[in-house]
Design a protein that fits this description.
Elements (H helix, E strand, L loop, with lengths): L1 H6 L2 H8 L15 E9 L8 H21 L4 E3 L16 H4 L25 H13 L2 E11 L10 E10 L5 E6 L19 E3 L5 E6 L6 H9 L5 E6 L4 E2 L4 H12 L2 E7 L9 E5 L4 E5 L7 E8 L1 E2 L2 E2 L8 E5 L20 E2 L6 E4 L5 E9 L2 E11 L12 E13 L3 E13 L21 E13 L4 E9 L10 E7 L4 E8 L6 E10 L18 H14 L4 H7 L1
Parallel strand pairs: 1-2, 1-10, 2-3, 7-8, 8-10, 9-17
Antiparallel strand pairs: 1-13, 3-4, 4-5, 6-7, 10-11, 11-12, 13-16, 14-15, 18-21, 19-20, 20-23, 21-22, 22-27, 23-26, 24-27, 25-26
Helix pairs in contact: 2-5, 3-5
Length: about 575
């Protein structure tokens, strides 16, 4: 009986219980802005029936949609894995997934799955189509898609399984689909023969591109959407596993949006026990509207009035007051166990052993240092005030290290990638092995060191295959505001670039301040396992000499002042 309820009457009950969109207002092609929303969701995971779980999650989605509709939202984004959550492990439970995955029509058909009795689309997905139609809203959801197949590229069970984002328009029609290309493990999932580059244009005349979670660290499809398709607004659904010191969820979302100067709608799967969560709406170099980062389980919705980007410029300044954050109680969305044993986010850690690091010696005044790793040299200038009286006795406080890396890292043993890092990072003690950790949130800590300014600079190789992000977090794991720093990348010539990342406002709660580069040409190579000498190499000095000569005498003074 319960399965029958979850299936045949599911759409009917949802249609009765939830009212239609309370307003017919919507952003138009001539509007200077549109209203976007992103969801932080702690999903239903208990149970053995994946279809029933999807139905329960779809019911909870309706609560978010009701709030969104009341606030005239044009487009809303739900997280990766949030609808088809379940407890099955994607690495070894493929057989459990197939019965609880959905077929999908092709976007070119513009079909409306809602109430389509001839469709083999799952009921939970049909419900979202109905909701898009009822609320006259673009809805982006992530599903587990199955597709019948044959031939050498087909799995033995006769199906291919994809981690797929789909977009419904205001009529409930499926208008866009993206199958995740950069899988994070997910060994039970398939990849298409070539990557999808998924874009869609809305009736309010904004061209969106979309990608999923781990994709954000790669060139395809993420960077291609901006460079090749000239997309101005990004849809990002994620089930992120935050990692210290550089790859916490909001930190990378902020950095990616800043570097590409796009509007960025990031939605996060909330599960603190695995370090999952982090949601926000960002406006590139103009900053962010609102972000959610919760140490405990949470369900939240962010709504913001987002200025359109036309001819490379935002039509109006962003205003954080144009954003609202709604948190839902356990009675509104009953997915949170109030007795949860996880008091805070359980974070992954980067392997810092191949980094070249040097302990920052607390001082009052200016400190200068140049540190190198595998021919990447980073210049650090800090101006600090240190209160030694605060560190007496058993006081807990963060120490700091300068850290540089140019090599290949592993992403949880699922993939390797080239990374270039110039950074100031916090540590629990004087040992560099503690620099990828943090104090428990219940620990009382003091802040003896105030950074009045930090300047990180580097002259390094430039390439379309290297993307660099200004990354930062404070001790509460919130990224710094764009008013707190400047990040400049100036080309010297065809092969080299000048980087300069500056902390412009004093901070005593700094945790990470880094130029983080992804060198895509090194992806797939073996992991770097040891650090090179920190001494500036003659090869590096010689290369800098040639660069300066190539720039010309008229620019030497400005170049030296930049460094």
């Amino acid at each position: 009986m319960s399965n029958m309820f979850a299936g045949s009457t599911f759409l009917y009950l949802i249609g009765i219980f939830y009212s239609a969109r309370l307003t017919l207002q919507a952003s138009s092609p001539t509007s200077n802005y549109y209203i976007g929303a992103v969801v932080e969701y702690h999903p239903v995971t208990k149970g053995d029936n994946g279809t029933a779980i999807a139905n329960e999650n779809a019911k909870n989605f309706m609560t978010f949609l009701k709030t969104a509709s009341e606030n005239e939202v044009d487009i809303i984004v739900f997280p990766e894995n949030a609808l088809f959550s379940g407890k099955s492990n994607p690495i070894d439970e493929r057989s459990n997934y197939l019965p609880h995955s959905t077929y999908l029509p092709h976007p070119k058909e513009s079909k409306v799955p809602c109430h389509d009795t001839s469709s083999n689309v799952m009921e939970a997905v049909k419900a979202m189509s109905c909701a898009a139609k009822r609320h006259a809203m673009y809805i982006v959801i992530n599903v587990r898609e199955k597709e019948k197949c044959s031939g050498e590229n087909c799995s033995k069970d006769g199906h291919n399984l994809y981690n797929t984002n789909i977009v419904f328009d205001r009529t409930g029609a499926l208008i866009a689909k993206y199958r995740k290309w950069n899988l994070f493990g997910e060994l039970s999932m398939n990849r298409t023969s070539k990557p999808d580059i998924s874009t869609f244009r809305t009736d309010f005349d904004v061209n969106f591109g979309q990608f999923i979670c781990f994709d954000i660290l790669f060139g395809t499809p993420a960077v291609k959407l901006v460079r090749d398709k000239k997309v101005t607004d990004i849809i990002f659904s994620s089930h992120w596993f935050s990692e210290l010191p550089f790859l916490t969820a909001n930190q990378i979302q902020t950095g990616w949006s800043f570097t590409h100067n796009v509007n960025f709608l990031g939605s996060g799967y909330n599960a603190p026990s695995t370090g999952s969560g982090g949601t926000g709406i960002y406006a590139g170099k103009d900053g962010h509207f609102a972000r959610v980062w919760s140490e405990k389980s949470a369900n939240a919705l962010i709504v913001a009035k987002i200025p359109k980007i036309i001819n490379g410029q935002r039509t109006q300044p962003i205003n954080p007051n144009d954003a609202m954050v709604f948190f839902y109680s356990i009675t509104e969305i009953p997915t949170i166990n109030q007795q949860e044993s996880v008091p805070q986010q359980h974070l992954k850690t980067d392997d810092l052993s191949p980094y070249t690091t040097e302990l920052f010696q607390p001082t009052n005044g200016t400190h200068n240092l140049t540190l190198c790793n595998n021919d990447l040299c980073c210049n650090f200038t800090t101006e600090t005030v240190h209160h030694d009286n605060l560190v007496k006795g058993a006081a807990k406080y963060y120490r700091y290290r300068f850290a540089v890396f140019n090599g290949v890292r592993s992403f949880s043993n699922f993939a390797t990638g080239g990374v270039e890092v110039c950074s100031v990072i916090s540590c629990l003690d004087d040992n560099p092995t503690s620099c990828n950790q943090r104090f428990d949130t219940n620990t009382i800590i003091v802040h003896p060191t105030t950074f009045n300014s930090i300047v990180i600079s580097s002259i390094t190789k430039d390439s379309t295959n290297i993307t660099r992000f200004p990354l930062s977090i404070n001790t509460e794991l919130h990224p710094l505001n764009v008013t707190d720093f400047t990040f400049v990348s100036n080309k010297i010539n065809a092969t080299h670039v000048n980087l300069k990342y500056t902390l412009t406002k004093p901070r005593k709660d700094l945790m990470t301040f880094a130029i983080y580069g992804r060198n895509l040409t090194a992806d797939g190579l073996p992991k770097t396992t040891s650090a090179s000498s920190k001494i500036i190499t003659p090869v590096y000095l010689l290369s800098i000499t040639f660069i300066i000569l190539a720039v010309g005498n008229n620019e030497i003074n400005s170049l030296l002042s930049f460094v």
